[in-house]
Amino acid sequence: MKLVLWDKAEKCNFSDNRILYWNDSSFSEKPLSELNTNLENDSINNYLEHHSEDIRNDFHDWVNKLSSVKINNKKFKDLIKLENNFSYWNLCEFNELSNFSKSKNLEKVIKLLALKKYLCENKISEIDVFSDDIFLKDSLTRLHDKNLKVKLNDSFIRNLFIRFKQILNFNNLRITPLFWIFIFYFRNLKLINKNLKKSFKPSTKSLTFVSYFNNYDKKKLIDHNFFESSYWGKLPTFLRKQSQNTNWIHISLQNEAKKINSHGLNTLEVIRNINKDKNNFQQHLFLESLFTWRIGFKALLRFYKVCLLSLIYQRLISKKWDFFPIINFEFVKTFQSHNTLENILYFYLFKDLSKILPLQERIIYLHENHPWEKSLCYFSKMSEHKKLLAHVHTNVRFWDLRYIYLENNIQEEGHSITPDIYCVNGMNQKKSLINNQYPPEKLKHVEALRFEFLNEDHKAKLIKSSSREIHYNKYILVLGCYLESNTELLLELTDELNQVLPKNVSILFKPHPALTIQSTSKKQSIKFIDMSMSDALALSDIVITSSVTTGSLDAYLMKKTVYVYQSSSALNMSPMREIDDDVFFNNKRKLIEMIKSDIREDKVYNSQKISLEDFYFFNSQYSLWNKELGLE
User: How far apart are CA 11 and CA 20, in angstroms?
Assistant: First the structure.
């Protein structure tokens, strides 16, 4: 049977062949729940969603094979070691699997695995490919099926130009690291301060938290020299009341100085004030403040080792990795660019931290599978701290590949690069992690710190009654995304809603804290807010998010009317997947009409299909956390 694979913006006019759409443009008028898997013409995203478990398992196997590839009878990962028993492979993008931000081509790998399964199931013998993506076409020619005939519709001149452009991009990535180390130094100059480092007096045999200086309580920070962040809920306050000493290691997101300066303070002043205040039992340090040029040059030398070896063996590896053309950019970016150098630099910063941090009872960190987490785990185990806890602080979404438990994570030549415990905040999260092959014996229950505000109904009512302006009948909250492309789409949607909705409807835009929006000045009609997530959700009636943001589930559990505005070509990353398909829209016109209808009909609450107790553990005395922190 012949198949046409269509990956073009224009409409496909073939009528004599079965058509499979690489992107969902032809199906964008229908919600996912109404798509018919029996249609002769189909989309790869539709097929993928209906075979999601099998295809995710296939992806898991594909990734595990990458780390086992051998060069001259030796594993590639063993050739790129930073220390005798630690490989750079642990820090690379094929171990991190951040498919929605760093390594976006991994989604194409998932689609290719779905296509491979589709071709087999439907006994396709010939595939006619219409696409401008030459790397997709290169990958299709390497499906290793002798019975499959692949016909490519190419433009020789265009393909030549794209390949030449790729070579230039790759060379630029390889040149950048030498300059990047100086950029890093000057960008963090205010943190690389001897006085900041000297003010850090870590307590012994206590608790150390590795986190970000973000989402903090501004009033407590300024008025009381006390750090409390929504990442950790009210746990820091609880620990202070117990006179429990805590150390805090922060990894800079490069936006802290701007936020702190807006309070009329500077970073050095804030950290010194906290560290000097003996009543808060906290000691804080930015990891970047440990930077020295000795560490910088050592990282640079290790970088060139990894870069040169990966460059030498790149052609051999490309023949052994399935779908290599589609992930060639990720390969260069993670082994031969400033990203490589950054990962190695943070590895040695954690090594330096291990020299000044005394023995701890517990080290607790935010678990998102970032490269620095492996460095922290490695040096924590080497330093023999009593127990290492990974706090899974957010919701685990089905297609968030960072939470796939890889075979490579289990052991690295006798040195574990995983924590002793994964702290899970509810049964839903636990179930998701077990499905992702996390070892059940390592999953321990703790209270849901980041979502405590969902359990404070009295506060929500108080805020709602006191914050509403009299002349507004309805509030629409648009939650920005940490992906700039998604945020731009949401800004455009907000701008259009401002033009078509009644004047008594207030539309508020809350930017994501991890993203500095460059284009906000162009959107003069948009009201940007700087309030906590709990206050913003309490104030709103309707909440609009992207498919990546987990805030959609928060709003849904607060019984708000929720809409998720998503791209028809991307994987469904929303935590609302498999909870309520009615919230998803990929057609902007239909979404606007639905919101206008909600306003006319005075719709406020959703017909909730789940309860808060289905998702999270809560206890104001933190009995579960006390147990895992060894404070019982």
Answer: 12
Nearest to 468 by CA among 418, 541, 523, 518: 541
The predicted model scores a pTM of: 0.89
Q: How far is CA 99 from CA 107, 327, 401, in A?
A: 6, 12, 6
Q: How far apart are the C-alpha atoms of 40 and 13, rounded to whole Å?
A: 15
Residue 412, beta-bridge partner list: 415
User: For strand 527-528 and strand 505-510, is the pairing parallel, antiparallel, or unpaired?
Assistant: parallel
* Three-point CA angle 126, 132, 136, nearest 5°: 60
Q: Are strands 74-75 and 70-71 parallel, antiparallel or unpaired?
A: antiparallel
Residue 550 is encoded by which pair of tokens? 């987990």
Per the structure block, which two tokens stand in for 353?
């931290």
- Number of neighbours of residue 245 by Cβ within 10 angstroms: 17
Q: Minimal CA–CA distance to 318: which of 154, 501, 584, 76?
A: 76
CB 48 within 8 A of CB 22: no
- Report pLDDT for 471: 61
Nearest C-alpha neighbor of 543 from the set 475, 590, 597: 475
On whether the CB atoms of residues 46 and 37 are closer than 8 A, the answer is yes
SS3 state of residue 88: helix
Q: What is the DSSP letter of 153?
A: -
CB 228 within 8 A of CB 211: no
401 and 407 Cβ atoms separated by less than 8 Å: no
Contacts of 121 by beta carbon, 8 Å cutoff, 6+ apart: none
Predicted confidence (pLDDT) per residue in 509-536, tens digit: 998 877 765 544 456 678 888 888 888 8
Cα–Cα distance, 490 to 623 (Å, whole number): 40
Q: Does an H or E element contain 152, and which? A: strand 149-152
How do residues 92-139 score in pLDDT, each as one tens digit? 999 999 988 788 899 999 999 999 999 989 888 888 888 888 888 888
CA–CA gap between residue 487 and residue 522 (Å, rounded): 14
DSSP 404-447: ---GGGT-BTTB--S-SEEEE-SHHHHHHHHHTT--GGGEEE--
The answer to whether residues 287 and 248 touch, using CB atoms and an 8 Å cutoff, is: no
Whether 206 contacts 361, CB under 8 Å: yes
Separate counts of helices (H) and strands (E) for the chain: 24, 22
Cα–Cα separations (whole angstroms), residue 2 to 5, 47, 304, 382: 10, 18, 48, 57
Give the count of beta carbons closer than 10 Å to the beta carbon of residue 278. 7
Q: Residue 393 has which token pair?
A: 């602080």
Full strand arrangement of the beta sheet holding 149-152:
42-43, 18-21, 2-7, 126-131, 149-152
For residues 139 and 393, give the distance between their C-alpha atoms in angstroms, rounded to a whole number.
Answer: 37
**Residue 117 CB coordination number (10 Å):** 16
- Cα–Cα distance, 273 to 280 (Å, whole number): 11
Angle at 271 between CA 268 and CA 275, to 5 degrees: 135
CB-based contacts of 390: which residues, under 8 Å, 6+ apart? 364, 365, 367, 373, 418, 419, 421, 422, 423
CA distances from 197 to 14, 265, 283, 354 (A): 67, 18, 11, 14
Beta strands in 472-541 (DSSP E): 474-479, 505-510, 527-528
One-letter-per-residue 3-state SS of 600-613 = HHCCCECCCCCCHH
